[in-house]
């Protein structure tokens, strides 16, 4: 039997390509040949994207096969395409996982969810006389001999975006690689966090470390006489550094010349190149062949796009392609500042790696919200390492803590840092300002209901000692007292030696997963709601033809805008009544808070609410553009992302 397996392996290797029909007895059931017996790429838990995602050029790539299997030390997922591998982004995502287009929740077994999004891509070819289905396999697969990937599920094929999501037993490091002949996107999920490869710059805990010693000095390395073909350019956002990877093919090795410049220009013509950011890192690869010249057979060269960004990057603003001229391929990395960088080579396949340090300690990655429970008023997700109360003393799924919870009978004692309850008091009473304690206020929407987020510091006259910090979401459920539920309150209180900063971050993320079952259900996808001095109104948002369309129901006209970048903001005017105006818009997924300066000097803070079927947040304020003195927006950590 061992002899037979060895012969099969040699036959696959000699064929030079993968077969979708490799049997389960093969050591490579995912169909990559003997080259696939070790994890590909650089394993980590941070997002990875390439191929020009999210806006690559070209026609849609058509999926032909999806396969998955457990291997020695990792589980493998392969997406195979007919023409080429499209732009891609691989990242862990928070539950619930929703289907693109319909927005329906897709049940997936697992405690963490690794989403693979490709664009432009589809399972249906519309280029001929009639539609032709290119992928006819199942939309839900379980890996043979899989240890950490529980199942792989199709979660989107909508408007040239194709998504598959893998359920994983926990948030484990993964590696991503593109292969040709046939075109394949390969994702390997390691069986444990310590299973990385030292040759790929792996730490003992499975997370990447920078490729080498970092500095701001210019560096150079010689290539070999045999030119190479650039086959892929991809970006990664990791703990403590942002990564740029240039993958090459051929018998030689690329050289490089890398250093900071204040005059990015095109080779040959000398024309200036616009590079966003406070500093520009010039990266020139040497000994690179022109497309079509000296490339290995069946190896397509990299074909753009000219500009790439990656969500989650801390210092990399944008990577800009320059020109390929006389064997020298220039790129320019726009950065937030002149940060130390490291450069090195990795093999199998050949890669030139540039790591730009963030200058900050490695951030704590948020714990996945992979558990979900239903209480009397809400269904909500919470961290996988946390606990919720069983419901014998107080209503179930209303207390959340990083340790087991055992509330005493017949008491409202604060035994958990996060609590959810429904108060019979009307919303306008609970949400009324309290100048003595209130430190910050921002309006938002939670599951289609108007809401407000308030930060307070106790004076010592109430339930909590002086100086106790509280962050609360108050959500309008309608009516109150004898006529209805009243107000949903979700808050965290900084008492008992808790980590209040951590708890606030967890609360903010939990609220975005809430589905409210108490009170009147939302009839439309509301992203803003106001009742007060600015007038009573709501703003709804829908996705149409890749744009976010906003309107004030029931009769307001739509105004549609393109989604901004992950850190950007777009505003549009909406009519309210007569000549009254509202400023509305959408914000990128990294924008947590916006502050509108009013003409009278006051500031109005807003938290964008999720727009269904998109990665953006919608917002609106009862101000015309002429009444707005300025706009500033920031991330969840308070860092400023932009202003105007």
Automatic annotation (TrEMBL):
Domain of life of the organism encoding this protein: Bacteria
Pfam families: AMIN-like
Keyword field contains Signal: yes
Signal sequence interval, chain numbering: 1-20
Bias (Gly residues): 193-204
Name assigned to this protein: AMIN-like domain-containing protein
Keywords (A to Z) from UniProt: Signal
Higher taxonomy: Bacteria, Bacillati, Actinomycetota, Actinomycetes, Pseudonocardiales
Ranges where the record places region Disordered: 26-61, 124-146, 192-214
Record domain AMIN-like: where: 62-191, 229-357
């Amino acid at each position: 039997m061992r002899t037979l397996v060895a012969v099969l392996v040699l036959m696959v290797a000699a064929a030079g390509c993968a077969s979708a029909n490799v049997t389960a007895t093969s050591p490579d059931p995912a169909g990559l040949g003997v080259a696939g017996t070790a994890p590909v790429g650089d394993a980590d838990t941070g997002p990875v994207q390439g191929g020009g995602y999210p806006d690559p050029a070209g026609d849609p790539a058509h999926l032909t096969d999806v396969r998955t299997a457990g291997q020695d030390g990792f589980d493998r997922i392969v997406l195979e395409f007919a023409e080429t591998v499209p732009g891609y982004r691989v990242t862990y995502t928070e539950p619930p996982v929703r289907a693109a287009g319909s927005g329906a929740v897709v049940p997936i077994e697992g405690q963490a969810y690794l989403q693979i999004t490709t664009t432009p891509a589809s399972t249906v070819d519309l280029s001929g006389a009639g539609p032709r289905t290119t992928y006819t396999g199942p939309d839900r697969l379980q890996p043979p001999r899989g240890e950490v990937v529980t199942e792989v599920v199709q979660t989107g094929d909508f408007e040239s975006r194709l998504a598959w999501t893998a359920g994983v037993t926990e948030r484990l490091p993964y590696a991503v690689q593109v292969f040709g002949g046939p075109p394949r996107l390969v994702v390997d999920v390691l069986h444990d966090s310590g299973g990385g490869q030292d040759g790929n710059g792996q730490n003992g805990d499975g997370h990447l470390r920078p490729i080498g010693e970092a500095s701001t000095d210019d560096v150079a390395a010689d290539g070999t006489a045999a030119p190479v073909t650039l086959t892929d350019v991809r970006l990664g956002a990791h703990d403590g550094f942002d990564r740029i990877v240039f993958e090459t093919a051929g018998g030689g090795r690329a050289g490089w010349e890398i250093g900071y410049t204040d005059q990015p220009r095109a080779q040959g013509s000398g024309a200036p190149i616009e590079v966003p950011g406070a500093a520009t890192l010039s990266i020139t690869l040497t000994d690179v062949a022109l497309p079509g010249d000296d490339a290995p057979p069946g190896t397509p060269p990299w074909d753009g796009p000219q500009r790439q960004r990656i969500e989650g990057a801390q210092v990399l603003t944008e990577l800009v392609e320059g020109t390929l001229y006389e064997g020298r391929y220039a790129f320019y990395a726009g950065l937030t500042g002149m940060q130390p960088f490291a450069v090195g080579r990795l093999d199998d396949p050949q890669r030139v790696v540039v790591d730009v340090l963030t200058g900050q300690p490695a951030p704590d990655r948020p714990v996945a919200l992979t558990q979900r429970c239903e209480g009397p008023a809400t269904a909500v997700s919470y961290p996988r390492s946390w606990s919720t109360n069983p419901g014998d003393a107080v209503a179930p799924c209303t207390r959340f803590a990083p340790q087991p919870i055992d509330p005493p009978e017949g008491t409202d004692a604060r035994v958990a840092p996060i609590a959810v309850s429904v108060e019979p008091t009307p919303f306008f009473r609970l949400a009324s300002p309290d100048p003595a304690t209130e430190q910050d206020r921002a309006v938002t929407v939670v599951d289609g209901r108007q809401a407000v987020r308030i930060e307070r510091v106790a004076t010592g006259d109430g339930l909590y000692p002086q100086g106790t910090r509280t962050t609360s979401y108050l959500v309008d459920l309608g009516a109150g007292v004898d006529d209805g539920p009243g107000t949903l309150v979700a808050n965290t209180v900084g008492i008992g030696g808790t980590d209040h900063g951590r708890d606030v971050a967890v609360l903010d993320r939990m609220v975005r997963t809430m589905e409210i079952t108490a009170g009147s259900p939302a009839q439309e996808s509301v992203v803003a709601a106001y009742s007060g001095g600015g007038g009573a109104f709501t703003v709804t948002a829908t996705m149409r033809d890749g744009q976010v369309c906003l309107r004030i129901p029931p009769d307001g006209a739509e105004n549609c805008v393109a989604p901004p970048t992950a850190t950007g903001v777009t505003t549009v005017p909406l009519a309210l009544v007569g000549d009254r105006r509202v400023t509305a818009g959408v914000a990128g997924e990294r924008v947590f808070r916006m502050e509108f300066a009013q003409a009278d000097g006051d500031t109005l803070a807003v938290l964008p609410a999720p727009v269904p079927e998109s990665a953006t947040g919608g917002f609106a304020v009862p101000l015309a553009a002429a009444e707005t003195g300025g706009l500033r927006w920031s991330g969840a950590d308070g860092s400023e992302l932009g202003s105007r």
